[in-house]
Amino acid sequence: MVRVPSAVRNLRHRLPGGPRARSRRHRRPVPPTTTTTALAPRPRPWKRALGLIAVVLLGAWLGLLVVGNVRVPVGPMDTTMTLRPSLTGGTKINVSPLGALDLDSHHAPVRLDVNVDQLDPARSQALVDHPERFSGLQDEVTQDIARGTADLAVRSVVAVVTGATALGLIVYRRPRRALAAGGLALTLLAASGGTAYATWNPDSVLEPKFSGLLSSAPSLVGNARSIVTEFDVYQKELARLVTNVTKLYDATSTLPAYQPDPTTIRVLHVSDIHLNPASWAIIASLVEQYRVDVIVDSGDTMDHGTAAENGFLDPVEDLGAPYVWVRGNHDSLVTQRYLEGLKNVHVLDDGRAETIAGLRFAGTGDPQFTPDRSRKPGAEQSQELAGARLASALRDQKAAGTPVDVAVAHEPSAAREVDGTVPLVLAGHIHRQKTEVMQYGTRLRTEGSTGGSGLRAIEGEHPDPIETSILYFDRDTRRLQAWDAIKLGGLGLTTAEVSRHLPEENQPGATPSPTPSPSAEGQHLFGLVAPGRP
């Protein structure tokens, strides 16, 4: 056998048609190695950081939302303290149904919410049975608030860290990234706490912002000029606020049995505002607090009825409920035409009737225009004539099958003329609240001055109170079921009273009567009084 030299064999494999060349042509592609995969583009660091921050913030917020609150008994009240994310910080104290108190206490991305939930019956009864305990209530409340704040801090840390860690584990599915999210959340919370501590402003109690009914009685938290700028004083003033609200809740627990249901029609009766701008804030607050369906103004909204005063009426459009209005003796036809051009306003005159919020109203304007408070000859006769025309229109409405539920006039002398033609007539003019059932069964409800008599408030020795009423109507029968008479202290005073009145036929155990006796009406008074004058 002839042996081929190795050099020749190697040369044969290197030739183009040789075995090695053919094997290279038929070789399959080599799949990419792990090294190739590792060289693929990765997310940019700033995108990863933004994603992590988003996970931390969302998880921390969810944690606070779910478990970041503490129920704390503060004296006889049950409260809930909560930390909430916020762009401006501060402290908000919610006292339902009176409103809220906002304090610019600190600047940090967290806000402290304190909700006064309810009155504990056992603890409140103990205070009622032993009034001497009120003397030590403020110290007790201060200790309760301090204890609740410490508990809230611990719970908030747990809530923030747990929420961020849990969401990080869901999103990244890596324990190390989840723990990093929890650590970052703890760092952010600590930074927020440090910022709040560094920007803490004890002077914030000097300039509180009120909303709801509390806006009518800011002295509930004390005379701002006498508050020392220290945190413990802030706690004591908060304690005094809770103490006063406790007295209010205790009084309301004995109100008559009538409870308005969600279908009840609620009417806010105002009158004689006399250019007092504070009235609009009070009305708007009552509309929100009582869920008012319609506002009825029985006149004298203005003082002189000039065109220059018309701008005062613009807030009527934003009060949150339809506004029914009749002209008073201080309101001119210029005033009436301006109101007719405002949205959501229903001007009634010459017996014209409209159905609003389920009730049918009819009214007439005052025939006299006496902005100088002069008394013209024949004024009484003109009032009676206007009332007689209104009564005739009411009879026509009833004959047409569209009976009126509520009539409105400014002066009681005109309102008396509709007796027997309508269940209820509303009036004003005399600047004091009064109710009577007239001879033929019509109830006359006269409202006080919702503007505290305007500038007249400073004429006498004692300023006139601000008065208004909430009227409750049954939606099916459209008859008056009860009313709350509201009275706020006049210029410089710090009192608030609410009294509930029940017609005789609506009292428990009473037999309905078409002509109730005015002397048998049930009522109960509760009030909130802050002593002294600011």
TrEMBL record:
Protein name: Metallophosphoesterase
Species of origin: Streptomyces cathayae
Domain annotation Calcineurin-like phosphoesterase: ranges: 265-432
UniProt keyword list: Hydrolase, Membrane, Metal-binding, Transmembrane, Transmembrane helix
Taxonomic lineage from the root: Bacteria, Bacillati, Actinomycetota, Actinomycetes, Kitasatosporales
Family matches, as InterPro entries: Calcineurin-like_PHP (IPR004843), Metallo-depent_PP-like (IPR029052), Metallophosphoesterase_sf (IPR051158)
Any Pfam family matching the protein: Metallophos
Transmembrane spans: 49-68, 152-172, 179-200
Gene3D superfamilies, A to Z: 3.60.21.10
Presence of the UniProt keyword RNA-binding in the record: no
Highest rank taxon of the organism: Bacteria
Segments for region (Disordered): 1-41, 363-383, 503-534
Biased composition (Basic residues): 10-29
